[in-house]
Design brief:
213 residues, mainly alpha, Arc Repressor Mutant, subunit A, Tetracycline Repressor, domain 2, elongated
Amino acid sequence: MARQQRAIRTRRIFLQAAAEVFDEHGYDAATIAAILDRAGLTRGSLYFHFTSKEELARGVLQEAVTSDGVTPQTFKLQEWVDMALLLAYRLPREPLLSASIRLSVDPRARGLFGTRWPDWIVIGTELLTEAKERGELLPHVDPEATSRLVVGAWTGVQLVTESMAEPPDLVAEISALFELILPNAVVPGVLARLDTSPHRAARIMEQQAVAAS
């Protein structure tokens, strides 16, 4: 068991190191040497877990789709909103997440590995479909189309925000995005009870940290 736990930790160290290097330099410019230097471990240890830079990139992308922090709520729409806000909150704090976006928008990396955007669309569609079955969405709303558009909008907001000389807070930007979208999709009684505050993600993470301590 101790050996297995050590192997899991070592694999995680390499993924974190690769993510940091991919995020800082892009896929093509990233080197195994730089990743090893960042990880502080041996080449033999790396090749025990990953056979190539390509496999490391695939490993980083596999970590990209995460609903960590999202907990069951009265409304499925709140879970959908929480997922987007939490991702925006975690992105600048977690290299694995930011690197996954860097790899997704890099033309060469995207050609090699694809992206995880389809997975995000599926998760959103499932939540929105259940929300519609519960009567939370207006009748005209198509869950799949809405999920696809919001994944695209979220990604666009993130990329534009990142490129600005003085980047605004990403969580606040995603909060504003929902303020624009939700009135056109959500029944009024539910809309009034949804929390899209830019402070919600930080509160959720703080509460979970306290509960885990």
